[in-house]
Amino acid sequence: MLEVNGLSVDYGSNRVVRNLDLKLNESEILMLVGPTGCGKTTVLQALAGLIPVTEGKIAQGGWISTPEKSVPPEKRNVGMVFQDFALFPHLTVEQNVQFRLKDNTLADHWLELLGLSDFRQAKPSRLSGGQKQRVALARTLAHEPSYVLLDEPLSNLDAALKDTLRWDIRDALKKAGVPAIWVTHDQDEALSVGDRVGILNKGVLEQLDTPEQCFEKPASKFVARFLGEASFLQGRIAGSNVETAIGSAPVYTANNAQELVELLVRPDDVIVSHSPEHANATVLRSRFEGGSRLLFAALDSGETVSARVSHELKVMPDQRVHLTLQSSHPLSALSQ
Ligand SMILES: Nc1ncnc2c1ncn2[C@@H]1O[C@H](COP(=O)(O)OP(=O)(O)OP(=O)(O)O)[C@@H](O)[C@H]1O
């Protein structure tokens, strides 16, 4: 098991990773997300042993790396997959995957499993981006790493390819039974593919939990907003419910729950109807999303909220609408 305690990394006087703790469970895929410059790549480089760390301990199997006694990358048995594929251009697909292997059985296994059998003799320049990334993954897995680090493996691919390849990568990692940390800036990718998601903000891991917990019970407004469209409405706790300007809903209450809270409302928690006589909000903007529209509306109470409606409902800016909070699951409330 890869275990990280109190990891901090500085570039000069700039601390870019702060006191990071995590344990990577067997066969687990942990997605690391966060805005640009928050330190995701730096964390991976530290875990691979490619950069010096300032404080903390990284341990895996038989080794422990500290700032005083760093374990070099070649002693960590780490596999890396990069966004630019990092293949040897002069070698064929097969030679890339077999590189430095004594026995080619696993190379054959992963070439076949990742759909590369027909391309064994091709040079990387002949392959599509998706195929190149499959070769990079096959090469990594054929070397039986103790853990795999993936740095935005899909960011150079088009949207349609991303969707299939993300599942193929997940399946391959699960079949190999190897734990992985996968860096992405794509929230959907993080929530759909990961067993757990870690949200990094300015070098600090703000939350590390299952995708459902991070989305439904975010540790902070930052996490809530980073993982999806989020509005915060003022609410008053009343037993197991919370009351807002657009109705009430069940709420998760913490031990220190206070009377007045900020309630996290996702667009799907709001029902929109045209009923001018009961209108309680004015549409500010409407964003077409294909199968649905995302509305941004100003409540008469002065707050703003977003709501998702069917694409068939043509709602225009300045239109008066009636919004109702509707959720059968508990919503998350942050103390004010
Ligand atoms: N070699 C370096 N020397 C000095 N500062 C660096 C170096 N590499 C990264 N940084 C700084 O460290 C911070 C974290 O960078 P990092 O690349 O880890 O972020 P990231 O979350 O991976 O960003 P992105 O999503 O844009 O790839 C940034 O402020 C960056 O400018």
UniProtKB/TrEMBL annotation:
GO terms for biological process: quaternary ammonium group transport. The keyword NAD does not apply. InterPro entries: AAA+_ATPase, ABC_SmlMolc_Importer, ABC_transporter-like_ATP-bd, ABC_transporter-like_CS, ABC_transpr_FbpC, Mo/tungstate-bd_C_term_dom, P-loop_NTPase, Transp-assoc_OB_typ2. SMART domains: AAA. Residues 2-227 form the ABC transporter domain. GO terms for cellular component: ATP-binding cassette (ABC) transporter complex. PROSITE patterns: ABC_TRANSPORTER_1 (PS00211), ABC_TRANSPORTER_2 (PS50893). GO terms for molecular function: ABC-type ferric iron transporter activity; ATP binding; ATP hydrolysis activity. The keyword Nucleotide-binding applies. Keywords: ATP-binding, Cell membrane, Ion transport, Iron, Iron transport, Membrane, Nucleotide-binding, Transport. It comes from the Bacteria. This is ABC transporter ATP-binding protein. It comes from Alteromonas confluentis. The lineage of its organism: Bacteria, Pseudomonadati, Pseudomonadota, Gammaproteobacteria, Alteromonadales.
